[in-house]
C-alpha cells in the first residue's frame, strides 16, 4: 500500500482532525497543513482545524496567510489533550511533541509528515523523508495520487512553499521538487505567485538586517553576526540569506534576542559543513538547535544571561549575549582568531558566566 493510501485509510476512520503547525510557521508548514486538510475532507472528515504557536511575522508568511485566506487558530494545549478515539492529531513540517511546538511531550500523535532531521518520531502514521527538499513536496504527491482536486489556492500555496523552501530551486532541491512543480504549474495562479514573492518589507526588518551587516565578523569563509534585540524574529533568516551571498562567505550565522530567547539562523554552501549538526553540537547543552546541511536554526533561553544584568541595562545584556554566543561559535567551529590561533575558549571563559542556561524545545 502506498503512503498516500495508508494515510487516507487512517483519516477515513476519524471524525475530527487537528493539524498542528510548528512555532512561527513558514509557507512550507502552512501549505502542507492546507493540503492535509483537503485530504482529510476527501476522506470524510468534516471537523478540521489548523493550529499554530508563536507569531506569523515574516512579511512573506503574512502575505501567504492573507492571500490564501487561511483559517488559522492559536494553539491551546487543551485542544490536543484528552480526546475521543476518532479525534486525530497531525504534525506537518515537524515531528516530535515539545520540539519546535508547544505540544506537551506526553501527547500521542496520529500523523507526522516532515522532511527535517529528527529522532524519536512516534506516530500511527509517519512519513519522514529527510532527503526531499520540502514537506510540501510530500503533500503534493499525496494530493496527486489520491485524486484530490488541485484548486488555484492549494496549488499556488504548495508551489510557492516548495520554491521558498528550496530558495528558488537552488537549495536542497531534488527531482521530487521538480516533479511536484510540474504537477502544480497548470493549476497555480502566476499573479498570486508574484505577489507572494515580493511582499512589502517593514522598516524594522530593514533596520535589523542593517545591524547584522554592521556587526558582522568574518573568519575565513565563516561570517558571524547579531542584530541585538529585535521584535522582528524573521529578520534573522533574511539577514542570514543576505550575508551568505557576500563574496568569500560560505557559512553565515546570525543571532539576536527575541523576547526571552536568543534566536539563531544559519546558512551554508560549504560542502564540508552540515550547519544543522554544527548548531546542534554547539548549543545542545544550553538550548535547542539543528536543521539541514545548508539551512538551520536554534533557540536558547536567556536564562542566566538575564540574571547577570538584572540591575544593569539592556545594552549590557546584548553585549554579554553577543560575546558569549560569538565565542561559542568561534570555538565550536574551530575558527582561527585574528592572531591565527584556533578558537578554543568556551562561553564561560569569555564572559565569566556559566555556559548552561537551561534547555528548551525549538
UniProtKB/TrEMBL annotation:
Instruction: Tell me which InterPro entries the record gives.
Output: DDH_dom, DHH_sf, DHHA1_dom, Oligoribo/pAp-PDE_c-di-AMP_PDE
Q: Which domain of life is it from?
A: Archaea
Q: Segment Disordered: which positions?
A: 337-362
Q: Which Gene3D superfamilies match?
A: 3.10.310.30, inorganic pyrophosphatase (n-terminal core) (3.90.1640.10)
Q: Where is the DDH domain?
A: 18-162
Composition skew (Low complexity), residue ranges: 344-355
What is an example of a GO molecular function annotated in this UniProt entry?
nucleic acid binding
Q: DHHA1 domain: from which residue to which, for each copy?
A: 221-308
Protein name per UniProt: Bifunctional oligoribonuclease/PAP phosphatase NrnA
Give the organism, scientific name: Halorussus gelatinilyticus
Amino acid at each position: 500500500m502506498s503512503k498516500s493510501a495508508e494515510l487516507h485509510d487512517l483519516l477515513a476512520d476519524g471524525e475530527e482532525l487537528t493539524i498542528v503547525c510548528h512555532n512561527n510557521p513558514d509557507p512550507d508548514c502552512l501549505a502542507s497543513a492546507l493540503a492535509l486538510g483537503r485530504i482529510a475532507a476527501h476522506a470524510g472528515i468534516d471537523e478540521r482545524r489548523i493550529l499554530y504557536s508563536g507569531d506569523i511575522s515574516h512579511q512573506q508568511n503574512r502575505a501567504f496567510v492573507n492571500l490564501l485566506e487561511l483559517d488559522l487558530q492559536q494553539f491551546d494545549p487543551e485542544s490536543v489533550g484528552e480526546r475521543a478515539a476518532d479525534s486525530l492529531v497531525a504534525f506537518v513540517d515537524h515531528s516530535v511533541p515539545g520540539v519546535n511546538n508547544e505540544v506537551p511531550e506526553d501527547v500521542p500523535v496520529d500523523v507526522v509528515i516532515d522532511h527535517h532531521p529528527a529522532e524519536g518520531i512516534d506516530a500511527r502514521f509517519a512519513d519522514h523523508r529527510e532527503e526531499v527538499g520540502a514537506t510540501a513536496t510530500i503533500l503534493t504527491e499525496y494530493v496527486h495520487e489520491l485524486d484530490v482536486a488541485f484548486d488555484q489556492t492549494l496549488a499556488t500555496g504548495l508551489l510557492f512553499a516548495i520554491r521558498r523552501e528550496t530558495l528558488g530551486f537552488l537549495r536542497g532541491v531534488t527531482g521530487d521538487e521538480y516533479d511536484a512543480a510540474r504537477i502544480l504549474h497548470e493549476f497555480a495562479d502566476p499573479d498570486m505567485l508574484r505577489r507572494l514573492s515580493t511582499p512589502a518589507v517593514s522598516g524594522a526588518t530593514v533596520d535589523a538586517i542593517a545591524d547584522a551587516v554592521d556587526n558582522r565578523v568574518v573568519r575565513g569563509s565563516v561570517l558571524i553576526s547579531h542584530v541585538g534585540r529585535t521584535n522582528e524574529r524573521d529578520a534573522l533568516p533574511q539577514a542570514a540569506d543576505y550575508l551568505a551571498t557576500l563574496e568569500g562567505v560560505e557559512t553565515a550565522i546570525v543571532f539576536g534576542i527575541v523576547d526571552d530567547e536568543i534566536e539563531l539562523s544559519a546558512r551554508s554552501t560549504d560542502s564540508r559543513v552540515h550547519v544543522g549538526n554544527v548548531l546542534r553540537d554547539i548549543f545542545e547543552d544550553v538550548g535547542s538547535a539543528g536543521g539541514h546541511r545548508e539551512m538551520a536554526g536554534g533557540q536558547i533561553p536567556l536564562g542566566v544571561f538575564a540574571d547577570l544584568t538584572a540591575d544593569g541595562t539592556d545594552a549590557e545584556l546584548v553585549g554579554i549575549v553577543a560575546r558569549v554566543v560569538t565565542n561559542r561559535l568561534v570555538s565550536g567551529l574551530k575558527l582561527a582568531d585574528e592572531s591565527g590561533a584556533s578558537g578554543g575558549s568556551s562561553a564561560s571563559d569569555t564572559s565569566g558566566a556559566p555556559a548552561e542556561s537551561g534547555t528548551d524545545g525549538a
